[in-house]
Amino acid sequence: MALAMAVKVVKQYEQGVLFRFGRLVGARSPGLRFIIPVVDVLHRVSLRIVTMSIHSQGIITRDNVSVDVSAVAYFRVVDAVKSVIAIENVHAAINQIAQTTLRKVVGRHTLDETLSETDRINLGIREILDVATAEWGVEVTLVELKDIRLPDSMKRAMAPARPRLSGRSAPRSSMLRGNRSRRPRSATPRTR
């Protein structure tokens, strides 16, 4: 009995991970790959850099100010076999760990540090993520804080006081002068 072969294409930016009867056979490089249907399963893993948005997180800074912070992370798979075997869904896992790491790292800083030392915070988040994701065959290449939103009360407190407009006070004073001139005069003359 001859086994039929199936043809799979692994693209240039991918690496294939081949399983035979559920056991790992190994990684497959780009090109045409022949597999035995039903017996073999070929998982294709993209090796390109992935851009992942870290959604806005409500974070309380070290000086007890509530801020909403969002970020973006860039990562890529460097070991296709680990990314398939070590974790079920590598993208979902990185998203979850990135959110918790963002909260943890920003929470260690004051509001002033969060606003002025974003490079240091970015590096701290990237290093923590890179260590956590190494066993999944993933390398985090860059993390950038994207948006830091302050509470409205904090924005008002930080805004400079607005000077009074001179144009607003002029009509009031002329109105007052106008009212004085329209006052009825008393019948009795003033004595000095």
Description of the structure:
By secondary structure, the chain is α+β, with helices and mostly antiparallel strands. The protein is built from 6 helices and 8 strands; from the N terminus they run βββββββααααβαα. The strands form 3 sheets. The chain has a 3-stranded antiparallel beta sheet with strand order 3-2-5. The chain has a 3-stranded antiparallel beta sheet with strand order 6-7-8. Strand 2 (14-20) and strand 3 form a beta hairpin. It is elongated, with a radius of gyration of 33 Å. 19% of the residues are buried. The model is unreliable at 168-181 (pLDDT under 50).
Short description:
This protein has 192 residues and is of the alpha+beta class.
Helix-strand pattern: EEEEEEEHHHHEHH
- Number of helical elements: 6
Stretches with pLDDT under 50, minimum 5 residues:
168-181
Shape: elongated
Largest sheet: 3 strands, antiparallel
Termini separation: 133 Å
Percentage beta strand = 25-35%
The assigned structural class equals alpha+beta
Spatial strand arrangement across the major sheet = 3-2-5
Radius of gyration, CA atoms, in whole angstroms: 33 Å
Strand segment tally: 8
Helix content: 25-40%
